[in-house]
Amino acid sequence: MTLIATESLTKVYGGGVTALSELTVAVEPGIVGLVGANGAGKSTLIKLLLGLLTPTAGRIQVLGLDPTADAASVRARVGYMPEHDCLPPDLSAAELVTHLGRMSGLPRTVARERASEALRHVGLHEERHRPVGGYSTGMKQRVKLAQALVHDPDLLLLDEPTNGLDPAGRDAMLALVHRIGTEFGMSVLVCSHLLGEVERICDTLVAIDGGRLLRADNIAAMTSATDVLAVEVSEGTEALAARLAALDLPVSREGQLLLVPLADQGTYDLILGAVAELDLPLHRLDQRRHRVAELFARRESSHA
Ligand SMILES: Nc1ncnc2c1ncn2[C@@H]1O[C@H](COP(=O)(O)OP(=O)(O)OP(=O)(O)O)[C@@H](O)[C@H]1O
User: Fold this and answer.
1) CATH number of 226-303
2) Which residues, in sequence order, are bridge partners of residue 210?
3) Where is the ABC transporter domain (predicted)?
């Protein structure tokens, strides 16, 4: 079954801001990365998926259900970790997560057991009786994740789960999200403005920009289908970049390296020809696999 499907989904806010425009995408179960710069429309999409917002136009389905018509059924099967928090400082994590489990419809004792289990999964079992107000940012993020897990949903929607964390905290959170997605049999949609982060843990990537779909694909397909040639000259990098662009090669820069997608054997010849023509000292020319981030950098630079 398709996890999430949208068709020409459009959301225009009251003030006339178009947050999503004609978005059509279908995503299979697994760990899905939703990436886009700040303001791209990620949070809007999540709120539409939850039925918290109504589309201005178009259609949306989650787990085969329509959140516009049947928000209660969707929320029973979906867990949501919001980007910002307003956790009541005087409650302990155990009390808070139990309460939210009760609000999801779990009986009292089941909610208590499930809360304890969810807090164990996120690594807060020992601290669960301390008031949340004294928690670090990383611990608060984990409480938010635990409350999203408490009713054992089929899909988790995580809005910027690494927000405010230091690099070690980010790594730990990403590892936790990956473990939930692979070991718990839950699908996860993880939202981030950092492509390099989600790329590490996702099966599928959906990239949006200015409310429009940039690309939706399997990560493996994105990276394996395209190899790239990395070229380095000891001097004259700018001149070579200009020459390659003039030859219609979509060239991008990474420090001293120029990256050119490998179309066929002719790409090698064009690069070697340009280096010889400009009489530049070639330091290296080698083939390597794309990282997903490069695909988007190349797209942005060719659009500039
Ligand atoms: N309630 C609202 N009323 C009017 N405009 C809004 C509202 N919520 C969001 N927007 C606007 O809609 C656009 C998309 O916002 P959204 O929050 O969905 O983006 P985002 O990709 O989640 O970014 P961020 O990570 O910064 O939250 C932005 O231009 C934003 O200013």
Assistant:
1) 3.30.70.790
2) none
3) 4-235
